[in-house]
Model the fold of this input.
Amino acid sequence: AQKITQTQPGMFVQEKEAVTLDCTYDTSDQSYGLFWYKQPSSGEMIFLIYQGSYDEQNATEGRYSLNFQKARKSANLVISASQLGDSAMYFCAMRDLKAAGNKLTFGGGTRVLVKP
Amino acid sequence: EAQVTQNPRYLITVTGKKLTVTCSQNMNHEYMSWYRQDPGLGLRQIYYSMNVEVTDKGDVPEGYKVSRKEKRNFPLILESPSPNQTSLYFCASSGGTVYVSPLHFGNGTRLTVT
Done:
């Protein structure tokens, strides 16, 4: 069964600094995708970045980058130059070939608060 | 703009009064799904659809119905809502190869059943 673990329930970061959000995963499948989502206080779920299990390079998307360490089964999100608008809940999620209902399995989330 | 549109955004209703939450996507995605999000329980899949006229139960389907008569629409129906269905609901869609495709979520529907 798929499992996602986010060990940081919450964290503060100073504006303009970088922050790393931890994510570890467990799957028996070789083919899987890892995703990060942002959920601001308004509630919507915003897709940020994706990393495939066969991708050799770490994914980047603007200020977001994904530190993918396959052997360690970790997929940490790095947000560079934090902005006040980055304050939100962040979820790591995974989909693999065997996922029942092709569903995303989510971690428990990390709440980020950016301080001015 | 590519998007998943859910309506309504907020809904307050009473126990037993049938309701429908609409969901529409304009990305020609074959796969669509409904999730509910509850504190401490995270996001759980309610129903999903692999294509038109193909739907199946997710992890928490009791008390819900869905239909997929057209590719773009995937409404969620609560025939007799109960207070334990008070939750934040998300519709989502994805296209292409499943495990490499992100789910695109609608803005969510906050449902309160009194």
User: Anything to note?
Assistant: Chain B touches chain A at residues 31, 33, 42-43, 45, 48, 50, 56-59, 88, 90, 92, 94, 98-108, 110 (CB under 8 Å). Chain B has a mean pLDDT of 95. The radius of gyration of chain B is 13 Å.
